[in-house]
Design a protein that fits this description.
By secondary structure, the protein is α+β, with helices and mostly antiparallel strands. It is about 20% helix and about 35% strand.
């Protein structure tokens, strides 16, 4: 697929940079806005030269895909047709009420509501569409009710920069109090008597560095600083245990954590440290009365274990094993209720929920029989309950919401995802393959295709991958991919090293000095899919976003001949420069994931050896679509802009290369549920174009 017009060319403005005595030249560093902090808050202050280049790329992308406009509209219509527009969650009980969210037909934003516990008339707490009126971008960060059910703390971002403004709403009147709390991390946590709310404030470099306590009805300028994190390499969050007894301050990077606690009924008490941070040791906390239940990898428990400790003496020397470490069985999360505890764990690539009765420690599991599926467990609002709620889906089975009685083991289906335009699960096949890697490992690959698809190597295939931060990509139901599958595509997810699909070891073997395993695993998955005749290399379109976009850039450099196309959404492709820039929001906390090239020459050299931007070379590349967000604080817009500019200058083919920058959004793209589908339709139209099906 060749371009049919002259693309824009960014001016090369060479700059020589020296680190550890090693020189590198960056021709397109000028695309990084020096005033990026201001741009996050007000995109109109973007440098005119940078804006002109981005808008020229947008115009080129529009021209090159003009012929697919009708196809994009068709795809959008199909995807929208699979969404129940007036959908509603199953309300979750909390004391005298039950809380839920819903959408109206045609509505883009969620509507938060409550009813009496046993049902009845709905009270609208927050109408997202009304709040979003007149805004090009609008996203609700969180909305949570106070324990006395009189207040709603909610936060919104109207620029895509993830600086959230928090408001407090009087539920009875439906009106917000006459002030806002700016630059928050997205939500608030109430104390037990509802008189105070705790929140995180972001600094000018977009780092969650300070925890404040706000007294309801007072001037936010007088809010009390409760905790300040001085190390820019750590994130901070605030939450509450399932019992509601303890407010939890969570300090963490990608391999180390530290937790402080405050009694929810004594909110003005100084926070108490549970255990000091110790590099490589992670832990998270729930509680029950005077006992803490702690999920941790302490003591070489690579796949985690659960221990208990007295609240009065919470230090590590008092930790006692409750659920011992089982190698290969990764404990993902835990939740403690009045009479039982649940944990979500994954073994052999498949999840299950384990219920443990606290009186006698008897356990039983909730699991399913499909080759590949997704399972999710939510804590709900209540502590004194015998019912838990979980969700289940597979690549062929729409999402199902169950209520489960832990005593009777009765499972009640409360909701099944509706596909208004129709969905017959038996028309599709889902498979789990194991692709052999060069070093003897096997890479799980989840696959979906129509039963009538001919598997002789001629089918086009979209291969999705992520493979970073230990994040596992679930084999869940995705209505959007059906538009490709119904047109003859095979849809595949490669579960490479860097995720945790095969335990914590799988994550460790795909980060820092082993990061290249992620890339070679993805290529191995592509090779195996071709060997098994699911597709051929020139008909595979690779797809990834964020850190998965870095994967796209890396495999484009390593094995361009093995892909017909590359889709890189908000791609982290300028890894070396970003990891050398400690002023950026995520750089210091990311060093445990990638290595610190500022202080470590070996880390510098290793990152430099795979960083996609730095390894663009004079050779043929597949057709490429890159997508960016101007106000993205996670992967800054200039990373894909620099990458595309360099590719244009040095690649030797004439295949299509496009950059689409959303000038009114950030990392997640458009905020409305239907506006986002238009971006998905663009991506799918590109895939169909590459496959010759547009």
């Amino acid at each position: 697929m060749k371009q049919d017009a002259f693309p824009p060319r960014a001016e090369a403005r060479p700059e020589t940079l020296v680190t550890h005595g090693i020189s590198r030249q960056d021709d397109y560093g000028w695309l990084r806005a020096d005033n990026w902090q201001e741009v996050m808050r007000d995109p109109s202050v973007l440098d005119a030269d940078i804006r002109a280049y981005l808008e020229a790329e947008n115009a080129f992308q529009e021209s090159q895909m003009a012929a697919t406009k009708e196809l994009q509209e068709t795809l959008f219509g199909e995807m929208r047709g699979r969404i129940k527009e007036d959908d509603s969650s199953v309300p979750s009980p909390d004391g005298p009420y039950a809380y839920g969210l819903k959408y109206e037909t045609g509505g883009q934003q969620p509507i938060f509501f409550r009813t009496l516990r046993d049902g009845g008339k709905e009270t609208i707490l927050l109408h997202g569409d009304k709040e979003a009126e007149g805004k090009a971008y609008f996203k609700i960060g969180a909305a949570s009710q106070s324990p006395d059910h009189k207040l709603l703390a909610w936060a919104y971002d109207d620029k895509g920069s993830e600086y959230y403004s928090m408001q407090l709403r009087d539920i009875e009147s439906g009106k917000d109090l006459d002030y806002r709390i700016e630059d928050t991390g997205g939500g608030g946590v109430f104390c037990a008597d509802s008189k105070f709310v705790f929140y995180i404030r972001l600094d000018d470099n977009h780092r969650p560095s300070k925890l404040f306590r706000h007294e309801i009805g007072t001037d936010p300028a007088k809010d009390i600083l409760v905790y300040e994190e001085k190390d820019s390499g750590f994130f901070m969050g605030v939450g509450k245990t399932q019992s509601g007894d303890t407010i939890v301050i969570d300090i963490h990077d990608h391999e180390t954590s530290e937790v402080w606690m405050i009694p929810a009924n004594r909110p003005e008490t100084p926070p108490v440290l549970i255990a000091p941070r110790d590099t490589g040791v992670e832990y998270s906390v729930d509680d029950h009365g005077d006992t803490l239940y702690i999920l941790t990898n302490l003591g070489n428990a690579e796949d985690f274990k659960i221990v208990t400790a007295p609240k009065a003496t919470p230090g590590r020397e008092f930790w006692t094993d409750l659920v011992p470490h089982k190698p290969g069985c990764l404990v993902l999360s835990h939740c403690v209720y009045k009479t039982f505890m649940t944990r979500l764990e994954r073994e052999d690539g498949l999840p299950r929920i384990v219920v443990r009765r606290l009186t006698d420690n008897i356990e039983h599991s909730i699991a399913f029989d499909e080759e590949a599926y997704s399972l999710g467990a939510g804590g709900g609002y209540e502590f004194d309950t015998t019912t838990i709620r979980f969700t289940y889906s597979s690549m062929t089975t729409p999402s199902q919401t169950f209520d489960y009685n832990v005593e009777t083991r009765e499972r009640v289906l409360r909701k099944e995802q509706e596909v208004p335009s129709g969905h017959t699960a038996s028309d599709y096949v889902t498979r789990r393959l194991m692709a052999p890697a060069a070093d003897g490992e096997t890479v799980p690959v989840s696959i979906l295709y129509r039963k009538d698809t001919i598997l002789d190597g001629s089918a086009p295939l979209l291969l999705y991958g992520y493979g970073s931060y230990g994040i596992s990509i679930p084999a869940s139901f995705n209505t959007n991919c059906l538009s490709l599958v119904d047109r003859g595509f095979v849809y595949a997810i490669a579960h490479m090293r860097g995720g945790k699909e095969k335990g914590f070891r799988w994550y460790k073997d795909g980060r820092r000095e082993k990061k290249k395993n992620t890339f070679t695993d993805f290529i191995a998955a592509a090779d195996h899919l071709v060997a098994e005749k699911f597709s051929s290399h020139d008909r595979i379109i690779a797809h990834g976003g964020s850190a998965g976009g870095m994967l796209m850039g890396a495999v484009a450099n390593l094995a361009p001949e093995k892909f017909g196309g590359i889709i890189a959404e908000v791609p982290f492709v300028d890894v070396l420069a970003t990891m050398l820039d400690d002023t950026l929001p995520l750089t210091p906390p990311e060093w445990p994931e990638w290595g610190n090239p500022i202080t470590d020459k070996a880390a510098y050299e290793y990152i430099a050896s795979y960083s996609p931007y730095d390894n663009v070379a004079a050779k043929d590349y597949p057709a490429i679509l890159a997508v960016a967000g101007l106000t993205d604080p996670r992967v800054t817009y200039w990373e894909p802009a620099k990458w595309v500019s360099k590719l244009r200058a040095v690649k030797t083919d004439n295949r299509l290369l496009m950059l689409k920058t959303n000038m009114e959004a950030g990392h997640g793209g458009a905020s409305g549920r239907f506006d986002r589908l238009k971006e998905v339709a663009l991506v799918q139209a590109f895939a169909l174009m590459v496959a010759g099906k547009a």
